[in-house]
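Journal club prep, shared notes

We agreed each person brings one worked example of a sequence with its structure written out as tokens. Mine is Nucleoside triphosphate pyrophosphatase. I'm keeping it raw so we can talk through how to read the token line rather than staring at a rendered picture. Sequence first:
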Amino acid sequence: MPLWLSRQPLVLASKSDIRGKILAAAGLRFEIRPAHIDERAVEAEAGVSDAAAAARVLARAKADAIAATVPGRPVLGADQTLACGDMRLSKPVDAAAAAEQLRALRGRTHELHSALALVRDGTLLFSCIETARLTMRDFSDRFLEEYLDMAGNAALTSVGAYQLEGIGIHLFEKVEGDYFTILGLPLLQFLEYLREHGFVDG
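Then the structure, token by token:
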């Protein structure tokens, strides 16, 4: 018997390569239909400034946007925000912005908030948010330059300008939290919901 029991595959409303890889490795049937929303406009309309609340709102907005185009299908939206004290960061637009983010995070502890929202026909079926705390070491400017050279364009694909699953691990001295939360998809909580509601074999 296949692991995924639902008649139709899950729809992932995200273009994140790592989220797709996580779901595939977990044996879930899914297709990818990235949601294209104006994240800052969604946050402004919702009136959120807190990083965790923003992650929840954006995950739901992405799921809703795609769910409206695929009636009857379960759609998974996901979002991750980064907060360091009163500072919030988004994905860097270029190498200079990536360097600026890393200098701001160097030697400090920041929080990653990862949220999920599962929606079908406008109804929220499941949502969760998990937080991880990561402390960057006080690396040198020379190492920062070397890291950005090694990371290349990959540094521009994630908030904070790093991927913990790659060479970005060299930036850190301490990591507290679930690995999948850090990658942007709180998988264990999601799988528990899928088992309890008959989407996957339990």
